Amino acid sequence: MSRSDAPSSPAPRPPGLRGGMVGWMLGVLVMALLLPRLGEPGLWDPHEISRVEAAHEVASSPTLTVPERHARPPVPLLLLALGLRALGTSEVAVRLPVALCALLTLAALYFLARRCGTPRAGVLAVLVLLTVPTFFLGARQATSHLPAVLAHILAVGGLLGVALPRREGAWGERVLGGLGAAAGLTVGFFSAGAPLGVGAPLLSVALALALGGVAAPIAAALGGLGSLALLVPMRLALAQAQLPPALRLGLGAALVLGGGLWLVLGRRGALLPAVVLLVLGAGLAAPPPTTAYGYSPWLGGFFRWPPSRDVQIDTVLRPLGFQLFPWAGLLPVALASLLGTAAEQEQEARDQRALLLLPVCWFVVTYLVATYQGALSQEVPFPALGALALAAGLYLDQALAEGAGGRAAGLVVGLLCVLLGRDLYLHPEQYGGAHFPDGLRWPAPLSWVSPLLASLGLGFGTVLGLGLALTGRWRRGLLAGALGLSVVGAFGAAYGLIPQLSRHVSYRGLFARYRQLGGSALGLYAVPRSGSKFYDPGSVELGSVAQVFEFLQRDRRAFVLVGATELAALDQHARQHGLSYYVLDDSNVQFLLVSSQLPPGETDRNPLRRLVLETEPRPQHEVRATFEDKLELLGYDLPPEIVRGQDFTVRLYFKVLKPLGGDYKIFLHIEGGGSRINGDHSPLDGKFPTRYWVPGSYVIDEHRMSTGRMGHSPGFYQVLCGLWPGGSGARMQVTTGPHDGDHRVKLGTVRVK
After folding, report:
1. What's the DSSP call for residue 253?
2. What three-state secondary structure class fits 570?
3. Phi then psi for 441, rounded to 5 degrees?
4. Looking at residues 606-611, what average pLDDT do you find?
5. CA 491: distance to chain centroid?
6. 748: closest CA among 645, 629, 655, 625?
7. What is the C-alpha end-to-end distance of the chain, expressed in Å?
8. How many of the other CB atoms lie within 10 Å of CB of 603?
9. Conformational region of residue 43, where left means phi above 0, alpha means psi within -120 to 50, and beta covers everything else
10. How many angstroms separate the CA atoms of 464 and 479, rounded?
11. What is the distance between the alpha carbons of residues 354 and 211, in angstroms, rounded to a whole number?
12. Are the CB atoms for 399 and 407 separated by under 8 Å?
């Protein structure tokens, strides 16, 4: 290695940074956010329960073997299985290993960011990753993506130590880096598959070295190894496409020829493209595989042919904005700034140029490989979160040193953060379920979260944007304030939002309530069996409403967990057969605990007792409108004034004239000032579908709504409502009463202030 290729000396420690004190404070913050009260929220069903079930089977195996039928990467299941073996069956047992994996991830990221920049950059990178929901929420539950994130950071950091040690001839650092890289690539292979877990880190470091103009032989070797990891899916795709052998061999020969010509005629030191072309060409010349069945770590999933049309070039990018909130708005500017700074480096600072390019290359390569793998096999969580945290840490470090930022950067970052907050106002499930790829149904009682997320986006974007736009003490203070806001948001979500959300996504609380009431037998109706295996293996599955009442009548201390959407069927059966039942716990929006007896001191929490009546109720405001002569809207309750950012309740009073002949949804449109407050919902939060509405009865539909401070301006708004079957179905026609000609009943006006 020549002197011009030698790594630059470490950057000086920023003034005012006391490493020991900052390290202790950061450690306490990390421990406080990730470890306490892991066992308090119940396991989410199916998000955590399905993983725990598979881990139970692995834990029961003498050799901790993952059965083939699970068809999942083994490392995440092994983590959970080790926890079950060590601590028994509990929430802490399956969550603590994931939290420890998160701690290792943060430690590895700190040393990587410190190697690429300064100790302050390491602290900032850790704070950024720590406070994004996909990380700190994923670290507190039985998730599967963090081992791959750790593997990427270990692999990239280890390869960097091999290729660019701090001092020339530092063989100890090279050996340590090699061990870290081997560990990271091995864990990556068994947690994300060969393309993402092995190929992406190797190619990322190789590209950064090649573009930086350093360690050309090492870059070429890493690129060749990374290309090998992409060969299996590429060859399988060509085999399934039934490419003629002559064409396949011709393509392979063309790649080999191109690599050879590049090697001979290319610029000296630019070995990476030549080696990649030679490896891919030689791989295509080999006989293609004939089968592609089941899960394979060489593919990172199941082979899918033809490639999925659902995966587009931006498929991987779209969820990252929500998963990395509130820092997602900073990342485009950070990546662009690092790219520009690297281009300005002098020839003598080639190693520093490679370090600045590393997070950019890491993100871009992993993004492309993830998109390719998602189309060809299956979509997987994005493992290069470390690249984005590293980019943010390096950029913020430069901004604090007055080497980055500016008014344009502040404006762009602020606007992006505010827009993300607005999007989360509309889709809060993207925040609460950012750590689970299989989606999350947002419970209606938590509508108060939406304005909080929008406010966090507005406040964080304003403070961070101003911090980047200003200079001097103002910059340092405002950037510190942005970091503080992200930390406060993370703690509020971990210890406020998630326990509340778990009450509706997990039904551990209902099992605990059953035991508290002294139940002797527990039945399940329209409830997944998986969660009950964990919390009460002795519970009995019931197949019909009739069986529910038979089960309750056998024993006065018997209880049944019922899906909330089945409450109407339960109520109808009870009315028809003169039976009684009581809802003892309705704290979970998806499930209810019912009994045939009302224990002393308990109250019936059945919402149908209050909202489905035999006598005509009296609404605050009378309307009198009919829908197709089947349903009459008597009136509504609504506050005369609505304060933006606060929740309010709307009640609609219906008289059932004839059977509605199907399930309808209710829409509420509160329109004014060029905007709309939308209140589309299922009647009575899905607990009383319209197919159960009996002629002669009165139904009060109660729906909670909220307004946003950003999207809704003050003024007077028109309130309209109607019914439609959902989707693109036609609305029920308004046959009498005040309406707008589009089958929306005019209820009146309300002032928003």
Report:
1. H
2. helix
3. -90, 120
4. 91
5. 17
6. 625
7. 69
8. 9
9. beta
10. 6
11. 7
12. no
- Residue 22: CB atoms within 10 A of its CB come to 15
Q: pLDDT tens across 683-716, in order?
A: 998 889 999 999 999 999 999 887 765 557 788 8
Contact by Cβ (8 Å): 124, 392: yes
Per-residue DSSP letters for 501-562?
HHHHH--HHHHHHHHHTT-SEEEEESS-HHHHHHH-TT-EE--SHHHHHHHHHH-TTEEEEE
Shortest CA distance to 575 belongs to which of 614, 604, 541? 614
Cα maximum dimension of the chain: 93
Say yes or no to pLDDT of 68 above 80.
Answer: no
CA atoms within 13 A on the CB side of 366: 32
Sheet holding 665-672, edge to edge: 641-642, 745-752, 715-724, 665-672, 675-678
Model confidence pLDDT, tens digit, residues 244-273: 888 888 888 898 898 888 888 776 557 888
Q: How far apart are CA 190 and CA 148, in angstroms?
A: 9
Contact (CB, 8 A) for 129 and 386 = yes
**Structural tokens at position 514:** 């059953």
Quote the mean pLDDT of the chain.
Answer: 89
Would the CA dihedral through 97, 98, 101, 106 be positive or negative? Answer: negative
* pTM, 2 dp: 0.86
